[in-house]
Amino acid sequence: MNQISPLAFVHPEARLGDNNTIGPFCCIDRDTVIGNNNVFLNSVTVHAGARIGNGNEVFPGASLSTKPQDLKYKGEDTLCEIGDNNSIRENVTISRGTASKGTTKVGNNNLLMENMHLAHDCVLGSNTIIGNSTKFAGEVVIDDNAIISAVVLCHQFCRIGGYVMIQGGSRFSQDIPPYIIAGKEPIRYAGINLIGLRRHGFSNELIQHIHEAYRLLYSKGVIAEGIQEIKNNLQITPEIQYIIDFVSSSKRGILR
User: Fold this and answer.
1) pTM above 0.90, yes or no
2) C-alpha span between 22 and 5 (Å, rounded)
3) Phi/psi of residue 230, nearest 5 degrees
4) Hey, which residues are catalytic here?
């Protein structure tokens, strides 16, 4: 049974699962689907197009599936898909998609801290931590297990690799490959995310393997030559293949 405050508004066309808590001054719009065991604290707005899973906790002032801040959006029906067990803190805004991709996606078990923004058509993986007031422009992709600190500004169309750590206050317009620390001013490669990888159970041998891959990658002025050096000198484990595939497919170029 859902617990809905008498001071909340739930549109008759909204579809709710079971055991959800909807606090006072929340607004749940039409064309929304909400799963089970979610908690919406006071003053949360869920706009049309939201598809929300199970076990999420959404804090006051959050606005989910908002109209995209994009002039090419002409009112078409698009979606904002949010998975399970996310903590969405105060004043977080997540836009729904545009005709470009149609859907903004958020995975599972993410911590989205106060006042951060995820723009239209972004894809956020699972088990990420996004710091206060960090902003992602449209069509950004963030892979699993990334940690992005506070007040980070990310240009549209960028991709952020898994297991990275990005320094607070950074701004960037290139892709950030997996397993690294990105920081300093201007932002650049600042070594392997050693502590993060150890916390995720990476062995010292594998960490050294990843470190060597980046040494080879950045040893050449041309990235394609660096990739060839990796192929010539290292065993291609799944982690090394991830680096190769990420760098090879980068459209904006990678951080150096």
Assistant:
1) yes
2) 6
3) -60, -45
4) 120-121, 138
